[in-house]
Amino acid sequence: MNRRFIIASGGTGGHFYPGFALGRLLNKQNCSVLFVVRKDDPAIRVLQENKLKYQEIDLCSFPRSLNPFKQLAFACKLWGALRQTRQILRQFKPDVAVGTGGYISFPLIFSAHCMGIKTVVHDSNTKIGLSNRICSHFTNLFLLGLPVTRPLPHAQLVGTPIRREFAEPVDRAQTLTQLGLNPDFKTVLLFGGSQGARSLNQALIAAVKQLVAENERLQFIHISGERWYQSISNRYGKTRRVLVLPYSNEIYDLMHTCDLAVCRSGAGTLAELVYCKKPAILVPLPTAAAHHQFYNAKILQSVGCAALVEQSPQLENELYILLDRILNAANNCILQTMQANFAKLDLPDPMQSAENIARLLKKL
Questions:
Q1: What local confidence, expressed as pLDDT, does residue 219 receive?
Q2: What's residue 50's pLDDT?
Q3: For the chain, which terminus, N or C, has the lower number of CB atoms within 10 Å?
Q4: What is the pLDDT of residues 200-215, one digit of tens each?
Q5: What pLDDT, in 10s, does the model give residues 235-244?
């Protein structure tokens, strides 16, 4: 029997890649998979490269404002998106509809529920988002990536799916050599997520310049985000042992290769850190809805496998002090302790999450 699954996914990497990992697995298991994405979503390029089918719907995020014009524009977009989604569902005739977070999930989950189609929602964060909390009233199954602060009675903890590439072996020396870096040097990976992070980027530059000037055996890979690449490159100038990249499709190689990561704390990033057992300094995005990145980061901080630094005017100095303490500790004792502390986490294996979810979907 050819099972058919439709997945609403996209918006940010944290919402897209769990759905993408699940969709690829289901496709490999000879299921028919169709993605529903926002019109002109950057994730479309990834779907095209992997020859995965998709349909676009025109929708905008819920306005966190009482402006009546914004509210009216949203209502019109939502009505149109619901009509588009019902048409897609009639044509594709899925067995199960899946939402992986963000506002793109609501039209699919609500429409599928009204049409008698089984529905599943996955939320990666420790604070359930507004769209998913609404969707929880229309789901047959609610799945969690992390333990949540406000539990739902029918939710199951399954972890957050990550891409299969993270399981492939990595040759550290070869990877660093190909990037023009020294395999014998301690390597730090800096990144702000799929969209980059302007404030985090700016705070890191001065700290990195000072650290490489003080320690000749440190090197940094800074993924700036395409939007900020030129300005970040210009600010580093001719600083040695710093590689600036606008984006990397091989983040899995870099994650395994580095000794320490400095990054935001979106749930997808956390799942990748957990799988790679990579010590990290986490700087939550302060504008994230319900401050969910802060609560995500607290989970890793609570067992000592990551440090948490909140964004503030002192971020630059705080990052320098923390990086200096971790990277220059005798015999790498802090890095080794942070890595060993991953054993204290009681979370599902992210590499098995997609298979666990697929099994649950098929039971429906």
A1: 97
A2: 93
A3: N
A4: 988 999 999 999 999 9
A5: 999 999 999 9
**Cα 282 to the chain's mean position, in Å?**
13
What pLDDT score does 67 carry?
67
Q: What is the pLDDT of residue 151?
A: 75
The rounded distance, in Å, linking the Cα atoms of 162 and 58 is 27
Distance CA 239, CA 213 (A): 9
Rounded distance between C-alpha atoms, residue 117 and residue 111, angstroms: 9
The contacts of residue 298 (CB under 8 Å, 6+ apart) are 126, 308
